[in-house]
UniProtKB/TrEMBL annotation:
GO cellular component: membrane
UniProt cross-references to Pfam families, sorted A to Z: TatA_B_E
The protein's name: Twin-arginine translocase subunit TatB
Molecular-function annotations in GO: protein transmembrane transporter activity
One GO process term, biological-process aspect: protein transport by the Tat complex
Keywords, ordered alphabetically: Cell membrane, Membrane, Protein transport, Translocation, Transmembrane, Transmembrane helix, Transport
InterPro entries hit by this protein: TatA/B/E (IPR003369), TatB (IPR018448)
Protein's cellular compartments: Membrane
Lipid bilayer topology: Single-pass membrane protein
Highest taxon, organism lineage: Bacteria
Length: 97
């Protein structure tokens, strides 16, 4: 989500330790973790509601069906080309005889 490396996390941790002190830091981390969990849950439920309202499952299913139809059409074209080649070869062989 955010491109934060280990070194940036360590800098933030050291600064937090200096500003808050070792006695208040565990409580602050616990509180931040609780709020982050609630935020993630809210975002997840909001995303699920939006997908339900928009009908994402139906859209995904329709896109998948369209992909399958394109693949079938492509296979059909390949089979037609192969059948044409076989017919041409059999005509050439019948003319040679």
């Amino acid at each position: 989500m955010f491109d934060i490396g280990f070194s940036e996390i360590m800098v933030v941790a050291v600064i937090s330790l200096i500003i808050m002190g070792p006695e208040r830091l565990p409580e602050t981390v616990r509180t931040l973790s609780l709020w982050l969990g609630r935020l993630r849950q809210f975002v997840s439920s909001a995303r699920a509601e939006i997908e339900d309202e928009v009908g994402m499952d139906e859209i995904r299913r329709q896109l998948r069906n369209e992909q399958i139809m394109r693949d079938l059409e492509k296979g059909k074209d390949q089979l037609n080309a192969l059948a044409k080649d076989v017919t041409d070869i059999s005509r050439i062989e019948s003319k040679d005889d």
